[in-house]
Design the sequence.
């Protein structure tokens, strides 16, 4: 069984490349999403909601060995 990796920010600028690379190397990849959206075959997803609100991360990190945190605030106005 491969090690599971949680990736936040998987739909951002860098995220899809990281997810694809991890998956190609044989990792079991889980992506944390604000809302449900399509993911590639073989990629697991968990919907966590908006990060501006408190998040219960327990379901997202259950069984995860590594976390790649790419989520961040971008393109915010004044």
Sequence:
């Amino acid at each position: 069984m491969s090690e599971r990796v949680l990736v936040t920010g998987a739909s951002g600028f860098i995220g899809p490349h990281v997810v694809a690379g991890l998956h190609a190397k044989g990792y079991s990849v889980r992506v944390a999403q604000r809302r449900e959206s399509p993911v590639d075959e073989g990629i697991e997803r968990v919907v966590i909601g908006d990060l501006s609100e408190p998040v219960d991360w327990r379901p997202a990190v259950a069984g995860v060995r590594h976390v790649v945190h790419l989520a961040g605030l971008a393109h915010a106005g004044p």
In short: The first strand starts at residue 4 and ends at 8. The radius of gyration is 12 Å. DSSP finds two helices and four strands in the chain.
